[in-house]
Design brief:
Blueprint: E1 7-9, H1 16-28, E2 32-36, H2 42-56, H3 60-64, E3 76-78, E4 95-100, H4 108-111, H5 131-156, E5 174-180, E6 194-197, E7 203-208, E8 214-217, E9 223-225, E10 233-237, H6 239-244, E11 254-256, E12 264-271, E13 278-279, E14 297-298, H7 299-310
Parallel strand pairs: 1-2
Antiparallel strand pairs: 2-10, 3-4, 4-5, 5-12, 6-11, 7-10, 7-12, 8-9, 8-11, 13-14
Amino acid sequence: MGSLIPIIDLAKINSTTDLAGHIGAAARGIGFFVLTNHSVSRELIADVFAESHQFFALERSAKEALSIKHSPHNRGYVGLMEEQLDPTRPGDVKEGFNLGLNLPPDDPEMLAGRPFRGVNVWPSSADCPTFRETMLTYFASCHALGRTLHRAIALDLGLDESFFEAKLDRPLATLRLLHYPPRPASYAPGQSGAGVHTDYGNLTLLATDDAGGLEVQTRDGEWIAAPTIEGALIVNVGDCLMRWTNDVYVSTPHRVVNPIGRERFSVAFFLDANPEARVEALPTCVSATRPARYPPIQCADYIAERLNATYAHRR
């Protein structure tokens, strides 16, 4: 069943135009694809997972000291059941840690108090001595790959290849480490590791372990398991990109069911546009018979709306 999610092998892609066709077909269909032989090294992915294991194994007090509740900028530790991706269901049975674009404290946007422009928080070097360096390297690597994918997306949508470049050079990207404990003997009614949701931004690049648990909803409502391929990244369209394309691309509901008898770890890189980017229907995606379906909105405003619905502390 997971074969419904296409696999794009970059080693077999000959040009950006070729890549555009593959991504366009996936984005118009299931909204997900698996990327293999990409530019994020397996060694770096392994290092990120090792750091994630080390971080989540810390004492609860050390993690709580970095709580996202202290940050208006969506940075820091998210405890078990603090996130509620499906607002009609109980909290998600997972914990996470969020990092954003690492700007210096004297950056003009930081000084101006722009939304989501805040300092990252870090575990102590005594607890996790190489954590910061590894995460910043991974963030930069995923950011570069995401911009490459957007060049192909622009071509697929009939735009200049560089259309998204200036909208993604200082993105509201979030790197999330995620830890799902083994499935409990019984969930609360409607509870899961991650409730049914769509992602908020443009693209998500997800690295997973081999525990499984990610499920994607097909257009006919069936739930299928996403494939787990060592070294691969699972990529999906988010809501902002769906808005930009006037629903030509599809942001697909998905969920995570905690595995039985083992932990699950994943690392998600959410590539959202720059905060001031104006998200509005692209001219190549509207016509007399297909008018714009969403009003224009700044990216930061849209992300804030979605996060406010997800976290009780933001409300």
